[in-house]
Amino acid sequence: VRLEFFINGKRRKQKKKARHTGLPETFVVTNPKENIMISFDLDMTLLDHRTDQITPSALEAIEKLRPKYKIVLATGRDMDNYYSTSYRDIVRPDAIVHMNGTKITVGDKLLFEHIFDPKLLRRVLSFCDEKGFGIGMTVGNEDYYIHPEIIAANDIRFWGSCGRQFQDPWKMLTMPVRTLAFVGSREQVKEMEREFPTLKLPMFASGHGADVVEKGNSKADGLRRLAVYFGEKEDLSDTVAFGDSMNDIEVVQEAGIGVAMGNAVDALKKVADYVTAPIGEDGIYKACEHLHLF
Fold first, then answer.
1. CA–CA separation, 271 and 18 (whole Å)
2. Distance CA 106, CA 108 (A)
3. Dihedral of the CA atoms 150, 155, 156, 159 (nearest 10)?
4. Is residue 290 helix, strand or coil?
5. Could you tell me if 3 and 29 are in contact, meaning their C-beta atoms sit under 8 angstroms apart?
6. What is the C-alpha separation between 83 and 7, in angstroms, rounded?
7. In what order do the strands lie in the sheet with 37-40?
8. Cα–Cα distance between 41 and 65 in angstroms, integer?
9. What are phi and psi of 27, to 5 degrees?
10. Contact present, 54 and 43 (Cβ < 8 Å)
């Protein structure tokens, strides 16, 4: 199994970042086997927030890929939560890297999880409470957020309504917390990063908040663990990864082929091997065609 990089029909010996949107340089998968992973972010990569639907062309592409490849969802979400399970069931992935690599599942099997440091968690929640920042998590059908009014207002702004079931956020101190969601401005995110240097807060593509992850965890780390499980190369050289946001940086950089959506943040486009069309212009399908994945 190998991913090969061709320019004008000539094979390059080493992978090089192409950073392009046109078609003069082409990545090609040769001799695909069933253990090769193709990884998709969910929000604004498969799932278009403007329609609240996974784009039909992306689903068509996934069905064409399914016989030859392992389909992986790699997302900042916990795909087992109530607001994500419907998308999980539509995509039917072979494996899921949840919450930026802090939880990994294959079917009903939990392969890995990372739990937030309890002392650090208390400091983070207390700081956000004092500052008036919105932060927390969703578990199952319940939502635990410091300053839930901020989260409710954000939901109404972006989704038109808020149907969350808010609970006492301090219960998080006795719960297994993997990652947190921060809702706020870029300036507030930067303040959090200055206050907590052991955390990273990759911004959401919408710019209205960030994932809160302890350093040492990422989607790329999650895919490496899956690579071992599936018998693929642990360096991800046989992996294709699609994304649009800052929490996709590591996986797009490290995958054999890293694809940024046309609607991706500029920082991701700069490190991607290939920049495809935006989500609303069949970006997933067009990239799969261009890369000769089917």
1. 9
2. 6
3. 170
4. helix
5. yes
6. 43
7. 109-113, 103-106, 95-98, 70-74, 37-40, 240-243, 257-260, 274-275
8. 16
9. -95, 140
10. no
For residue 253, the SS3 value is: helix
Contact present, 260 and 274 (Cβ < 8 Å): yes
What is the spatial distance between Cα 158 and Cα 85, in angstroms, rounded to a whole number? 20
CA distance 251 to 264: 14
d(CA 87, CA 173): 29
In Å, how far from its chain's centre is CA 56?
20
Per-residue model confidence as pLDDT tens digits over 137-194: 998 889 999 999 999 999 998 888 998 999 999 999 999 999 999 999 999 999 999 9
Secondary structure, 3-state, 122-137: HHHHHHHHHHCCEEEE
**pTM of the predicted model over 0.90:** no
Instruction: Report the amino acid identity of residue 283.
Output: G
- Cβ proximity of 248 and 273 under 8 Å: no
